[in-house]
Design a protein that fits this description.
mainly beta, 32-stranded parallel beta sheet
Length: about 525
Amino acid sequence: MVVVKYLHVDPETVFDGLSTAEPNSTIDLEAGEYTTPLTLSGRRGTRAEPIVIRGNPGTVLGSGMPFAEYRKTGNILSRRQQATGRFPGLYFMADEAALVVRDCQWVVIEKLLFRDCWPTATYLDNCQNVIIRDISFEGGTFAIATTGNDTRHILVEECSWVQDLSGRGREDLKNIREDGHPDPSPPPADTLLWKMTDWNRVHGARQDGFPVDVAKDARGLDGDFFRAWNIAGHVVIRKNVVIDAFNGVHFFSDGATAAENGCSRNVLVEKNWFVRVRDNAVEPETFAWNWTVRHNRFVDCYVPFSFELESSGYFYLYGNLGWNRYRPGPEGDTHVNGQLFKFGERHEAVGPHYVFNNTWILDIPIVKRRRFSNFRHFNNAIAYRSASGKRIPEPRSVFGNDSESYDDPRLSLDEAVAFEGSRFTKRWTELAIYFDGDWIDHPMFPDGLRAQGYPIGAHASGERLHFHDAGVGSPEGLRLRSPRPAKSAEIELPDGRKRFIDSKKHLVGAWQNTGPLALDTAPFAAHWND
């Protein structure tokens, strides 16, 4: 019989516990304020006997400095980065964390409260098989930051992050945990990040006309719930709640060698809530391979999916629900009219990208501009509604403000890319783009868009959509009153196996007869820690 070794520590003795941890040790942090940064370095548990770092009620890690006090410091540090020619932000100092785990294996971090950790709460460097669960993050630039080409097999589940504490984030978190949905009313007008701060004051750059302004900016909020720099992957992020944050899940890989180095591979993002995300909720950047994003709820996210990727493949986005009713930003903010998908200027597909059987209520374009390769969009249910829930007579364009412009096939690639700066590409055949079987309640869909040169498939419909309850944040409410059969489709997995959507068994949209669409598209997740 294995006996767990409990190391009961307080703010004075915690360093002894971290330095002597061994397999099957549980470092039990007694109630108290842990304001000095902690580090676990070079320690290895095992699958059967992990090292556990555990908190208790009243255990708080962090600086104790609210954002109002840190704001100027964050701006000054960002301005120093700008002065060296780098993008202004606190990314360079993400390793200044309340808890650093470096060169470790088989570690569990659970039941802790991180509050006002600037810039970072938890930082993983060259770690494998780490579980982060049941953690509350409040404030901070980064909740979880990860780095290292050998960092892999990370599980983040049942955590929460309210980055900006000025609004009703804590109340919405409680409502989601207890009632299954956030408050459907408009967000408070005095919410700092969502309503009061111009986007460019968080993430603007000098070259765009927004150098750092120490007095006005809020650069300390330019962060992410989960940030990855060049990590291998095998990451599962599930059942978390992210509220009033700048970004949600953000993986970054450097340059063209990312594919060869095996970065950002095998990622599952499922059953999370993303509420009032000011920039991007899910953002793989540069390179990503074999991602599944399913059964998430997106409420008022500026851009739910940012796919500015140079190379990617084998993406599966399905069973997600989303509401986009209330716009962010103060008067004059240029970043208030988002889009469902954000694409880049050039993209190489190393596999397909499937977006199917999702349900959305929008007041933003599906794609505003640019292009993406091997993009297969089918069986989605999308309605354009106002904040009051009424059908919008003249909603925003589905594919950008300049969607009626003619596409000259004689244009070179560079000329076509420049032309696509104000609308989604029309070169669907060349890029293997496919829209069919979608039910989109928009006056231009599908016939008006076909007339503009978008070859939307024959099974698409623009008829009126009726929900059981179109109120913001009610998952069950997005069931369709008169569902219709889905279009049959074949889905290819990375290992060559197939999954099928059968029109006789499946319905358009996320909701099926027995619940959200469920497919085994992420088999690696069942063995993520093997």
